[in-house]
Amino acid sequence: MARWLLIATLLALPAGARAADELVLWHAYRAGEEAAVVRAVDAFRADHPDQPVRVLAVPYGAFAQKLKTAIPAGHGPDLFIAAHDQLGDMVARELIDPIPIDTAVDRFLPETLAPLGRADFGLWGWPLAFKSLVLFYRTDLVPAPPATTDELIATARRLGGERRYGFAYPFAEFYFHAPWYFGFGAELLAPDGATDRVDSPAAAASGAFLRRLVLEERILPSDANGALVTELFNRGRAAMVLNGPWFVSEIAAGVPWAVAPLPVVSDTGRPARPLSTVEALFVARGRTRPAVLALAAALTSDEAARWRAELAGQPVANAAVYEREEIRASRTLMTFRAQLADSVPMPTAPLTAMVWEPLNEALRQIGRGALGPQAAFAEAHNRIEILSRPLPEARSPAPYVLVLLLLFAGGLGWAVVRRPPAVLRRLVEARLAYAFLLPTALGMTLLVGIPFLMGIGIGFFAFGPGELRFVGLANFTKILAAADYGVTHPLSFYFTLAVTMLWTVANVALHVAFGFGLALLLQPTWVRGRGLFRVILILPWAIPNYITALVFKGLFNAQLGAINALLGKLGLEPVGWFDSFWPAFTANLTTNVWLGFPFMMVTVLGALQAIPEDLYDAARVDGASGVQRFFKVTLPQVAPALLPAVILGTIWTFNMFNIVFLVSEGQPEGSTDILVTEAYRWAFMRNGQYGYAAAYSVVIFVILVLYTLFTRRLLAGRSRA
Amino acid sequence: MMATIELDRIRKSYGDTVIVEELSLKPDDGELVVLVGPSGCGKTTLLRIIAGLLEPTAGRVLIDGRDVTRLPPGERDIAMVFQSYALYPHMTVGENIAFPLRVRRVAAAEIDRRVGEVTAMLGLAALLDRRPRDLSGGQRQRVAMGRAIVRQPKAFLFDEPLSNLDAALRARMRGEIAELHRRLGVTMVYVTHDQHEAMTLADRLVLLNGGRVEQMGKPLELYQRPATRFVGEFIGSPPMNFLPAERREDALCGPRFRIPLAHLKLDRQAALPERLWLGIRPEAMRVRGFDDASPSIESDIDWIERTGSDGFLYARVDQIPVVVRIPAEAGQTLGPGQAVSLSFNEALLFDRDTGRAVQR
Description:
The complex is a heterodimer.
Chain A: H1 2-16, E1 23-27, H2 31-47, E2 53-57, H3 60-73, E3 79-83, H4 87-92, E4 96-97, H5 110-113, E5 126-131, E6 134-138, H6 149-159, E7 165-168, H7 174-183, H8 201-216, H9 226-234, E8 238-243, E9 257-260, E10 264-265, E11 270-271, E12 275-284, H10 290-299, H11 302-312, H12 325-328, H13 331-341, E13 344-345, H14 356-367, H15 373-387, H16 398-418, H17 420-429, H18 431-458, E14 461-464, E15 467-470, H19 474-481, H20 493-522, H21 530-542, H22 545-555, H23 562-569, H24 581-609, H25 613-621, H26 626-654, H27 657-664, H28 675-684, H29 690-720
Parallel strand pairs in A: 1-2, 1-3, 7-8, 12-13
Antiparallel strand pairs in A: 3-12, 4-12, 5-12, 6-8, 6-9, 10-11, 14-15
Chain B: E1 5-14, E2 17-25, E3 32-36, H1 43-51, E4 58-63, E5 66-67, E6 78-81, H2 93-103, H3 108-122, H4 137-149, E7 155-159, H5 167-184, E8 187-192, H6 195-201, E9 204-209, E10 212-217, H7 219-224, H8 229-234, E11 241-248, E12 251-254, E13 257-260, E14 275-280, E15 285-287, E16 297-306, E17 310-317, E18 320-327, E19 339-344, E20 348-351
Parallel strand pairs in B: 3-8, 3-9, 6-7, 7-8
Antiparallel strand pairs in B: 1-2, 1-4, 4-5, 9-10, 11-12, 11-14, 12-13, 14-20, 15-19, 16-17, 16-19, 17-18
C-alpha cells in the first residue's frame, strides 16, 4: 500500500511541485539575454529574500504551444516573456491578464507601447525590447551607407561581380520585403481585417522594385536563405545585408561592419519601414497579485534594461537607457533605436498568420520572373482569401456519436455472437503470457493507439482563434471535393495526390534500378575491394537524411550551387532548380534516390548471394543468354525478397517529409509538395488549421491502408503459387 | 545423334596451382566414360571444361571433330546434370524440363510433345505442376535428367549426380542411368569419387590423381591389372593390401613371410627390382589351413567383421594392416589377439620406388 502511495505521489509531483507562494517565470532566451533575465531575477531575490522565484527556460520551438496548453490547465507560469505578435491569439485564447491601469509606463519608448495597447485603453504587457531590420554593411567595402534606394542600387551595382553581391537578403520572405512594401506605402490588413490591401498599386510598386533588384539590376543572390546571407557577408561576398539584432552574434570575428538605418525609398521619398516586434512581459490569466507585479517591476526596471542592453546587446524599451553615455556610444543600439521610429509594428490579428505563406509565394514568383508584380500580389490576395475563409458551420455531433455507438455495439455484439468462450478461455489459459505483453500493449496504446484515434477525431473539428468547432465530415468533403480551387491548382488535394504518386513511383523505380544495378556490379567475386565499395555505397543510408537534404539543397542553389557551377564549366546554361516544377521535382528525386538506393542494394545483394552458382551454370549449359539468365533465373529468385522491400519503400517514400520539405520546400507555388508536407503546412503554416490537416492525414492513412491491402493480396498470391 | 568428344592436351592451372596436367582423352562414340578419383584430382574441372563452364589454360576440346574450346556452353549441344541438380526453384517440373527448349525458342507444340515424352519416360508425368521443393531427392534427380534429355543433346555430362542420395536410392538411380545410356546410346561423361559407381557404370574408366591420368581402360582391366599402386588401392573395396617385401635370390622376404618366387608365377624373374610392394586383394587372401602347402604370412588378428553375406578379417602383419575377405560362416573359432597364418591365390608386384606395377 505504501509503495502505491509513493508512486502516486511521484506521479503527481510535477503538478504539485509549485510551492504555494512561489513565482514562476517562463522565457525562451539563451546566452546573453538569459543572463540578463537571471541577473534581474537575482536582484529581485536580493530585495525579497522571502519570496521564492523559479525561472524556467522553455525551448523556443515549444514555447507558444506550451503556453497554450499549460495556462488554461492551471500549471503555467505567473509571468512570461513573449513577442507581441502573438498577442491577438493570446487574447483570443484568454491566456493573459492586462497590466494594472495605474502602472507607470511613461518610462518606455512610446513606439514599444503602441503594439501592446488594448482596444479601449491600458496595456497587455510591459515592453522589454524590440527588434527590426536595419542595414548591415561591411565598412571595408562600403565607406558610407546609402541614404536612398537609388544610392543603394548604385553602390550594390558597383560592388557586385562574379559570385559577389552588392546586397543580399532572403527576399522571398515577406519579413525582409516589408521595409520596401511599407516604404512604397502599401498596407497589410485594413483596420476591419479585409485582406484586399495586399492587392494594391503600392504593393505592386514594391514588387516592381524587388523585380528590379533581382532581375534587372541582378544585385541580389536569387535563392538566398538566412544562413547563406550570413556566409556571404562574413566572406566579404555580400557588401550590405538586411538583418536584425540577432545578426550581431553571427558576424565572424574580424569582419569590419557597421549598421545604418534603412534608406529612403527614392520613388516615394518615404523611408523604408521594417516590421518591428516588441518583446514584452505578460501576466498569465488570473495570476495578477502584488508579488507578481513586484517581480514584473524588477524585470522591467531601467537597471534590468541596462543589463539586457549590455549583456545581450539588445535594443531595449526603456527610454532612460538611451541617455546613458556608454549606450549613446553604441552606434548599433542607437541605430535600432532610430529605426524603431520608422517601423511598422508586427500586426497581431490572428488572420495575419495566414498572409505570410501567400506573400512569400508572391515574392518568389516575382523574383524568378514567373509573374508580374501586380499579378503576383493579386494571386497572393486570392490565396489569402482561400486560406482565411470562415470555418465550416458547426454541426451537431449527435449523429456521429450515434454511428460510433452503433458501430461499437455492433462490434461487441459480433464478438459475443462469434465465440466468446473460446476467446475468454484462451485469455485465461494464457494469462501469464498476456501479463508479459501488458507493458508493451500499454506503451503501444499510449504512444500509438491514442494519438492515432485523437488524430482521426481532430479531423472532425475545425480550429479558429480560441475556438474549437465540431464540423463533422466537412473537412473531408472539402478536401475530396477540391471545392475552393481547381483540381489542377497546387493547393488541390488531387494535384498533390498526383504529384505524390509520381514522386513515389519515380523514386521506387529508380531505387530498385540503381540498387539492383549496383548489387549486380558488386556481386561477382572477381570485383576487387567489393567489401569496401559495399560500405561506401551504404553510407548515404547511414547519414541522417535531413543533413543529406540540406547538402543537396546547397548543391542545387541556382547561383552558388556546385551543380550549376559544373554545368557552367561544361558550357551549359545554369538551371533555376526551384523555379519550375520539373527541375524542382528532379532535385527532390535526385536527393531521395541518393538516400534510397542503398536499402534496395542491400536487399538485392542478400538475395543474390542466396542464389546457388549452379543455377547459373545450369542455365548457361541450357543455352540461356545473359539477358535470359537475368530475367529467368536472377529476377525470379530476387523477387520474393525484393517485393516486401518495394512495398516498404513505397510507404516510406509516400511519406518522405524531410526531402520535399527541405530541398524544394514545395517550390514553385507548392507544386512539388506531397501529401504529408501539405498536411504539415495546413497544420503549422496556415494558421493552425489542425482539423483540416488531421483530415488530410486520415486520407493519407486510408490510401496507404488500401495500398497495403492490395499488396498483401499480391504477396499472398505469390506465396500460394 | 551420336557424337565424339575429344580432349586434346588439356591443361588447367590457376597461377602456380596446376589442377589438370596435360591430358588427352578420346572416348569412343556412344561410350559411357567415368572420370573417377579422389577429391581434388581435377575430374570436375575436366567436366566443366568439356561443358564450357571453364576455359582450359591450354589445349583443345573437340566435339564431333569441331574445336569448341572458345564456344559458350549453350552452343556446344551437350547437357549436364549437376550434383545439386540445379533445378530452378521458382519453376514447376514441367517448366524446368522445358527451359532449355524455351530459351532456344522452340515452338510451343514441339515443347509440349518433347516434355511429354521425357516425363513419360522418367515417370514424372504426375509431378509436372509441382515445384522442386515439393519433390524427393530421387524425383529431383530425375527432373534434372529430364531437363538434360529433353534437348536431345550430342552428349551428356554428369557431375556426381548421385552423391546427394541415400544408398538404396543411389543403387536404383545407377540402374536408371545405365538403362538410359543403353536406350539413348549417346556419349556420356560421368564424374564420381565412388569407385563402386565407376566400376558398375563405366564402359571406360579414367582414374585421375592429382590432375594426371593414373590409368584408363575397361573397369575390369583396372581391377585386374592396376598400372600403379594407387589404382590398386583406389579400385576395389576394401582396397588391396600392400606388404613391403625385399627380393632375395629365389624368394620375396617380408616382415613375417618368405614367399618363393615360383609361387608367384612370374614371367621374367630377372626384371624384378630390389624393393617391392606385394599387393594382394582381400578376396584373393585366405586363412591358411593346416594342410595348406602354400607359403604363409603370419599375422595377428585385430577384429572380425561380418556383413551377413561376407566376413572380413582385420589383421596385422608386423604392424601393417591387412584385410582378408572370408566366407560369412568361416572363422568362428578365431578372435582378436590370436595369431593366424594367411595365404593367397594371386598377388601383384609393384616397384616400391615408382609405385608402378611390375610387368608379369
